[in-house]
Amino acid sequence: MMGAGGSxxxxxxxxxxxxxxxxxxxxxxxxxxxVFGAHRGHHPDxxxxxxxxxxxxxxxxxxxxxxxxxxxxxxxxAAELAxxxxxxxxxxxxxxxxxxxxxKLASGGxxxxxxxxxxxxxxxxxxxxxYWIQQLLxxxxxxxxxxxxxxxxxxVDAVMRDTALIAASKAALEVYVRHLAxxxxxxxxxxxxxxxxxxxxxxxxxxxGPSTARLxxxxxxxxxxxxxxxxxxxxxxxxxLAGDRATFFNGATIDFTGAEAQGAFDVLLQxxxxx
Length: 275
Prior knowledge:
Blueprint: E1 9-13, H1 18-29, E2 34-39, H2 44-56, E3 61-65, H3 71-85, E4 90-95, H4 115-138, E5 142-152, H5 164-184, E6 190-196, H6 202-208, H7 212-222, H8 231-242, E7 253-256, H9 264-271
Parallel strand pairs: 1-2, 1-4, 2-3, 4-5, 5-6, 6-7
Helix pairs in contact: 1-2, 1-8, 3-4, 4-5
């Protein structure tokens, strides 16, 4: 679906819902980018709403239905992007894929993670970030000064039950970001990682299942502001990072957690009646 012409494109993987959807809507408004999004079709009504909202903002929008978290998915997606957007058109690339497995590393039981789950999680949550950047470069799709952005969360610094693969893949993503920043910097591009706390999305609910409500009740107690961030707030930070005022951010892990990790011991003490 196409609307009015734009001055550049944002590529958002995982665009149909949650943080990815919020980012697509925000960057269509500010800094005013057309949107090429990829999703797997699990939330068609929400994807249609994103498409409508971006078009109503006066931007072109093209949503690709298919797997984006594999090497082949990156190749096919970039080929389609080249036809839609053209050379040196991508000003922002955002990797917002969530396709992780949860479970135990070595329980010996049914909840023990299998090799295919390791492979799937790392491909989708970390490796595909590199695959897409490789394809964007090979097809000369990145505009001058393009911003490539991975998304992370505090799990990488914590031990939360059954989330080892998520944490490990996000740690790998952080390493990729640092190295890619060094490789792409001389070409004029930026590569960063935005770390933010839990925003209630389908991905969070899938990860924590019945414990989601308890998590959402406890997290605000960890944060000095007394609340978690919203998807819209995360999207506004992404819009800032995509703009000209953030050109010196490179190879950075940007903390937007609201000091979440710093509050764990305080909450523990409160729970034992120390405060």
